[in-house]
């Protein structure tokens, strides 16, 4: 993808972590009206964070962490202006490439509107719809 790169890091990289927080604030709090206390869950320290840069500007983010159930992918956020440009797919591909060797189940909780996106990458819905931070979600596992 032209002029786009994805980097991974942890919270000790303060400059990139500030960009992650900025993007998540814009997407989750300002756009989706989530309570900021729900967004800042304290789990970033246990996570590998990702930042998408286009023309050296931070435009997207996600994270993964290990849980009792396997590897959980979380906090996918692409700035509105950059959606529908395959950037989310590019980000997900990079994360999956980084973690597939770990021999653990890979799963996520997808908002209803993103289910088809994750199905295209091999995730399948597991179980019933449930509310998470006031948004309907499905648990999805990588097939």
What is the topology?
Elements: E1 4-9, H1 14-31, H2 36-39, E2 48-54, E3 57-67, E4 70-78, H3 87-99, E5 106-111, H4 115-119, E6 123-132, E7 135-142
Parallel strand pairs: 4-5
Antiparallel strand pairs: 1-2, 2-3, 3-4, 5-7, 6-7
Describe this entry's structure for a reader.
This protein has 143 residues and is an alpha+beta fold. The protein has a domain at 4-103: 3-Layer(aba) Sandwich (Aminopeptidase), CATH 3.40.630.30. It has four helices and seven strands, in the order βααβββαβαββ. The chain has helices at 14-31, 36-39, 87-99, 115-119; strands at 4-9, 48-54, 57-67, 70-78, 106-111, 123-132, 135-142. It has a seven-stranded mixed sheet with strand order 1-2-3-4-5-7-6, sandwiched between helices. The protein is globular and about 40 Å long.
Summarize this structure briefly.
This protein is of the alpha+beta class and 143 residues long. 28% of the residues lie in helices and 40% in strands.
């Amino acid at each position: 993808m032209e002029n786009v790169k994805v980097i991974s890091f942890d919270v000790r990289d303060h400059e990139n972590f500030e960009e992650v927080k900025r993007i998540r604030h814009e997407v989750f709090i300002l756009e989706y009206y989530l309570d900021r206390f729900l967004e800042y869950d304290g789990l970033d320290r246990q996570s590998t964070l990702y930042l998408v840069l286009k023309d050296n500007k931070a435009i997207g983010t996600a994270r993964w962490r290990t849980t009792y159930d396997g590897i959980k992918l979380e906090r996918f956020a692409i700035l509105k202006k950059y959606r529908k440009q395959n950037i989310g797919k590019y980000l997900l591909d990079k994360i999956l490439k980084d973690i597939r060797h770990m021999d653990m189940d890979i799963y996520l909780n997808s908002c209803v509107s993103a289910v088809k996106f994750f199905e295209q990458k091999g995730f399948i819905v597991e179980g019933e719809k449930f509310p998470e931070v006031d948004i309907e979600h499905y648990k999805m596992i990588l097939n």
